[in-house]
């Protein structure tokens, strides 16, 4: 499929397009969440990076030594259409597949738990300059029934849901959530 | 009302009781959440403290300068009985009342938003060595209909739900959530 902007780019490198080039996946999602909050459509936040604080200068109220902790949950959670929503954003730096090593063992355990409790949970994966919603159930299914260490690009094209970039919100992932989880409601 | 442990304590200061003395409210709740997770009863985590990172030593992978950011949401969230749950824990250092200055304006806005979207949301307040669940709706009601800058202790005694300390979980707040939000289910 050819996208008009992609085509235009080939003709004239100086033409400004409205895609959010240069914004990484996290910025795109944060910006979408701000928009959803503003529109009162959902209340979803990125969790702060977990750190272990080793030293605080109490006079300045500044952290002077700390380390990054491993994440045991997903990055984003909140409420949408009355449901608990909990997801992770991942960028694949390989064009042909998404390495499963990107997801910690603890995060897979977390995913199993929250799905059991009724959460809406998924990954948003950026691969090959495209964005896909990968359902948590499908991810577990893939992991449990494959010995592969990565998910091929073709799996995203065939079994996941593509999220288009827009102006506002930059990455309208909730419209895809509507289609996938709330169809017919 | 007299509690057996409190009474015992008066008789013999050396008797070991099973209350979790010395544990602050945050530790009590974290410990309860670990227990709930283990029992597969709920998946609730404390959000990491939000910080702004100013300098990272990439060789050591250590944060060498950072500041504490203001919180715009509540500290704890997750899923319980299929519902989005989101709450804050607060210790009152005054015995006669709970100063409302303890809660940021942004947090009140957050509370209004999530309640509108169908969240189960409340405060757990430690006051006078007792623990109370204060419903989010009641808190907003109090704020919107009072010019008072604090909630008197009597309000907790008369209008909130007392949470007892136990051995495991240390603070069984979900049993109170059951009573308050899921009665008859």
Give a verbal description of the structure:
2 copies of one chain form a homodimer. The first copy, chain A, is of the alpha+beta class and about 180 residues long. The first copy, chain A, has a single domain, classed as Trna Endonuclease, Chain: A, domain 1. In chain A, about 30% of the residues lie in helices and about 30% in strands. Chain A has helices spanning about 5-10, 25-40, 105-115, 135-145, 155-160, 175-180; strands spanning about 40-45, 50-55, 60-70, 75-80, 85-90, 95-100, 120-125, 130-135, 150, 160-165. In chain A, strand 2 (about 50-55) and strand 3 (about 60-70) form a beta hairpin. The longest helix of chain A is centred in the first third of the chain and has 14 residues, at about 25-40. The interface between A and B is large, with 38 and 38 residues. Strand 3 of chain A pairs antiparallel with strand 3 (about 60-70) of chain B, so a sheet runs across the interface.
Provide a compact summary of the structure.
The structure is a homodimer of 185-residue chains. Chain A is of the alpha+beta class.
């Amino acid at each position: 499929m050819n996208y008009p902007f992609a085509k235009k780019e080939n003709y004239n490198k100086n033409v400004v397009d409205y895609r959010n080039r240069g914004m990484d996946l996290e910025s795109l999602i944060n910006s979408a969440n701000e928009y959803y909050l503003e529109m009162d459509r959902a209340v979803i936040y990125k969790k702060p990076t977990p750190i272990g604080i080793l030293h605080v200068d109490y006079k300045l109220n500044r952290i002077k030594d700390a380390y990054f902790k491993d994440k045991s949950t997903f990055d984003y959670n909140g409420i949408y259409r009355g449901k608990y929503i909990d997801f992770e954003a991942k960028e694949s730096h390989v064009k042909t597949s998404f390495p499963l090593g990107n997801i910690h063992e603890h995060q897979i355990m977390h995913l199993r738990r929250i799905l059991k409790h009724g959460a809406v949970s998924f990954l948003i994966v950026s691969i090959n300059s495209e964005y896909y919603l990968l359902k948590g159930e499908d991810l577990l299914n893939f992991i449990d029934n494959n010995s592969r260490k990565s998910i091929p690009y073709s799996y995203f094209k065939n079994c996941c849901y593509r999220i288009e970039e827009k102006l506002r919100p930059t990455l309208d992932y909730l419209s895809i959530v509507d289609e996938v989880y709330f169809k017919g409601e």
